[in-house]
Amino acid sequence: MNPSARIGRGVVLACLLASSISLSGCYPAHAVAPADRVVRVTSLPRGATVVTVKRQTYHYHHGRFYQRQRGAYVSVKAPLGAVVTTLPRHRTVVRVNGQRRYVANGVYYRAERQRGRTVYVVVRR
What percentage of residues in the chain have a pLDDT greater than 90? Predict the structure, then answer.
């Protein structure tokens, strides 16, 4: 193969890689950002669900809560009382005052039954 053809392919691959990393709505950006870092995206990750707490609308995806602000979605602190149907994959089980709690990214959840199914409520501890 011609050496200049190899360089050309390398440049094209590098450009493709760089452009895919910079896409703000790209799923991996949601998956790898630390929970304490504010994330601003133009579109929600696939599978995000709507959660309403005290008349405020949030969007939940894998342990991260978002709110719409100025044409984008910004990650926000988990609202107390939010009810979600799934927990992040990386969570731990702890006991608080003898009660089982799930902790993920510094957020505490309490499992409870609602309408015949298990849901998880964001709690202080």
Answer: 68
Summarize pLDDT for 30-39 with one digit per residue, the tens. 444 556 688 9
Instruction: Give how far Cα 57 sits from Cα of 52, 65, 76, 78, 121, Å.
Output: 5, 10, 12, 12, 16
pTM value?
0.70
What span, in angstroms and rounded, lies between the C-alpha atoms of 69 and 79?
16
More confident residue, 25 or 52: 52
Residues 6+ apart with CB under 8 A from 108: 96, 101, 102, 122, 123, 124, 125
Q: What is the DSSP string of 75-118?
A: EEPPPTT-EES---SS-EEEEETTEEEEEETTEEEEEEEETTEE
> How far, in Å, CA of 112 to CA of 106, rounded?
19
d(CA 62, CA 55): 22
Within a 13 Å sphere around the CA of 51, how many CA atoms are in the beta-carbon half?
28
DSSP 68-82: EETTEEEEEPPPTT-
